Amino acid sequence: MISPELPRKPALALEIALAVSIAVAFADSSIVVLALPELFVELQTTIPRISWVVTAYNLAVVVSAFGLLPFVRRVRPAWLALVGLVVFLASSVVCALSDSLEALVAGRVAQGIGAALLLASSLPLLVELSGDRRRAVALWVGAGTLGTAVGPALGGILTEAFDWRAIFAVQAPLAAAAIVAALHPAARELPPPTEQGRAPLGSALALVFTYAALVGALFLAVLLIVTVWDYGPLAGAGIVSALPVAALCARPLSARLSGLADIVGGSALLAAGLAALALLPASDPVYAVPALALSGVGLGLALPPLTRASLARQGDLTRSGTTSVGVRHVGLVVGLITVAPLLASELTDAEETATLNATAVILDAELPLTTKIPITLDLYREFQRAPQGEIPNLSRPFDENDAEGDPDVAAARDDLLESVQAVLTRAFRSSFVLSALFAVLAGLAGFVFGRRAAV
Length: 455
Description:
Shape: globular
CATH topology of the domain at 1-194: Growth Hormone, Chain: A
Oligomer: single chain
CATH superfamily of the domain at 1-194: MFS general substrate transporter like domains
CATH architecture of the domain at 1-194: Up-down Bundle
Number of strands: 0
CATH class of the domain at 1-194: Mainly Alpha
């Protein structure tokens, strides 16, 4: 319980500082997604290699969280959190100062280790600071849900306002503020856990599938909007913000439903939103925003009760909280390693179709040969940039050949971009369908274990 000497306002400030760091640790699973195109260009690398900026963090959290399980009973939560926060702070600085992919990935691995230490110990610390187990669990669950949902949008805003390094630079002072909470006497005096509560395994399985499904909403959708549709990080953040906004708006509805209805209904809505993304009729936010919002409602309904169900009802929360953290990131890793190869295969097949369609557009364009030939040559040069680590700008050849002043050139540019975007958008369908299948499996797991998962 909280120390009698500790006034409520300072205690609340410490709770908030710790909750913010929890949200950031969960957000870091996807916070760099909107910055990947900029990282891709600046670090002169390949798409498979740049994906390790995301994968390395999640793998590090998984390995560290499960590796901690034999030791959490021997360490005071405050010291575990303190080490985690110091590692997280230092590695955030390393990431912000990185000038190579290897340094950035190493920093992300260290971030994942620090995040696992923090998340494993943060729940008992919140219980101690708040003096109320139910309130602490609600705060931990809420921070985790919010962080998971807002990660991509937050990263996009920071990238557009500054650059990708700002994503990591802002995390250092947030971790420093949380260190104050871990150093408070009320937290330091909390002894190592003795009675280890256990949570139902069914909720863990449902969490794995839910987070695997979120790869579609948090990663695939962002890559589609920013890379294929060519929206910038800020515009992309605006589009994908439909997901966290909808997730927050779903909470009043969730309060009126049983835990089982939340889980099954939320999983169904998440699957429906991902299926809608697979069947987008055009490369237009008008269609993407409602699909993302539907996914967000599903996330807002299903994730909080699933998270609560993954925590022990009695006894210490350290072990079950650590397991919950590891299970979530297992889901993300499962989603990434299954969806990424499928998407890569589909994009490889789509590349030839897109090239043929682009050629047909140029041939059919009502342009003189003296204009077509320079545009064609410039387009060839743009495609040649890709192996050098740059993203082809298919608008540039037209813009440099007077698209602004010649409506025929502008029309040819728009037709080519629409044709290529349509083909590449369809290449995402199978990956979105697989993500939707994960959501269906999450709902089935929640239903089968419903009586134990319901909260």
